[in-house]
Amino acid sequence: MTSSTSSHTVLLIQATPRLDSRTWADYESVTDALDVICKMFEEFLSKKSAGTPITYDVSQVYEFLDKLSDISLMIFNRETGQYIGRTRAWIKQQVYEMMRGRCQHPEGGEKVIVGY
C-alpha cells in the first residue's frame, strides 16, 4: 500500500455516463476509501446473488471498476499540503494488494467469500 494510507482521502465516482451519477465522499485514510470501494462491489454482488454466499476474486472487482464511468481518489500529501490524484489503474493495484494481504488462499489465489 502507499505511504499515505493515513492521509485524508476523497473518493470521486461517476457510476454511469449521466452527469447526475457523480458523487463523492471523504475518508480519514486511503484504506478506508478502498474498503468502501470493496463494500460497494460486495453490495452489487449481493443484489445479484439472492442471499447466497458470495465468492469473488480480484478480476471481478476489476471488471466492476472498469464498468464505472469514472473513479478516482484525491489523497492529501502532508509534505506539500496538496491533494494528489490517483487513477482507476492505481486504485485497482491498491485493491489487489489489499485483497492479497487480507485473503491469502492456500493455493496462492485471492478469493473472498462473503455471506449476506
From TrEMBL:
UniProt keyword Cell cycle, yes or no: yes
Gene3D superfamilies: Enhancer of rudimentary
A Pfam match: ER
GO-annotated cellular components: nucleus; perinuclear region of cytoplasm; RNA cap binding complex
InterPro entries assigned: EHR_sf, ERH
Keyword Cell cycle: yes
UniProt keyword list: Cell cycle
GO biological process terms, semicolon-separated: piRNA processing; positive regulation of cell division; positive regulation of chromosome segregation
Alphabetized PANTHER family for the sequence: ENHANCER OF RUDIMENTARY ERH (PTHR12373), ENHANCER OF RUDIMENTARY HOMOLOG 2 (PTHR12373:SF3)
UniProt function note: May have a role in the cell cycle.
Family: Belongs to the E(R) family.
Protein name: Enhancer of rudimentary homolog
The organism of origin for this protein: Caenorhabditis brenneri
